[in-house]
Amino acid sequence: MKILVTGGCGFIGTNFIRMMLRKHPDWQIVNLDKLTYAGNRLNLLDLEQDEPRYSFVQGDICDRELCMEIMADPHLDAVVNFAAESHVDRSINDPSPFVTTNIQGAQNLMECARQNGISRFVHVSTDEVYGTLGPEGKFTECTPLAPNSPYSASKASADMMARAYFETYGMPMVVTRCSNNYGPYQFPEKLIPLIYLRAKADQPLPVYGDGMNVRDWIWVEDHCLGVELSLLKGRDGQAYNFGGDAEETNLDVVRTILSILGKPESLITFVKDRPGHDLRYAMDFKLAAEELGFAPTIGFRDGLVKTIEWYENHADWLDQVQSGAYRNFMNQWYEDRT
Ligand code: NAD
Ligand code: DAU
Q: How many C-beta atoms surround the C-beta of residue 257 within 10 A?
């Protein structure tokens, strides 16, 4: 099988490419990535150098000519679209790039895939398209889409476009909706690596609001497994939920990181809440369990220990991704919140 993976130099894409090439000796992967602030070509440099089944193209999923050219390859079987602007806080500061990449870019890929008769398209979406839950219940695939941030609104729009491509053109389309991922290579603007970095440096740890918002956390390779199963076994036109069965308040996540690192809870600082902050996410992934055989493989604390071990052993990676632009964004973001 030959697959076009987009956004493969980001957090989940990097893990997906590594895992798929490891598991499937006969697979070839082309990675199309624009290399935004969140994309790091060095994540997969060893594959570029030593793995003939892997190739990298720097480019934009909005670029019609380029995407048509890549998908004209008669050996290309499938597209897996990870490419996105992915950070909710950035979408609140400026929604425009989210509309461009997450909606227009996704539609451009779908159109190129349609014109080239690609036999499978997996669009990677998120649980955030469902909006927020109260203290009870879980999202199912039938929960109406009710996004609350510019990020989730852009993702929900692409989900609707995927649905339209299936209904209108019969395109072999599967959508995946997953909860919060954690693990190696996550960019340190997101909660877990951010708290890790700041706790290591004995800096105040910003917890939004009262810290009682709940997220369901999934080990990144479990999400990759869900995407792989969707690619191989998903029903055309279907969306599948994936989760880690690990609901945690943000405050508990921060406390667990502190306990693993042996750092004091006095570092915790409550800061201004995120506007439109969703209270709780929880996933019912029965459909994926029954139809695809999906089950998460690792519990939250064990996964967190593995994640922290990875960051401890990859201080060079953390240095690399903390560019001047990263520092400017984080300083401004911290100032706005305190
Ligand atoms: P990320 O921000 O770490 O990586 C995104 C990648 O996409 C980067 O490599 C970036 O360079 C690339 N990219 C951005 N715009 C592009 C464009 N116009 N053309 C080509 N490449 C472009 O994101 P992530 O956390 O790895 O998320 C990947 C996907 O999974 C996203 O679609 C996101 O919505 C979805 N998702 C993420 C999570 C999570 O917890 N991180 C959970 C559920 C779903
Ligand atoms: O649920 C899936 C989504 O998970 C993905 O679709 C997104 O791409 C991904 O970024 C993630 O979104 P969140 O907004 O949930 O992730 P983030 O790590 O930014 O925040 C997790 C929770 O922690 C959220 O409730 C906000 C809170 N938070 C976050 C940061 C960065 C804090 O309290 N303090 C912080 O400094």
A: 23
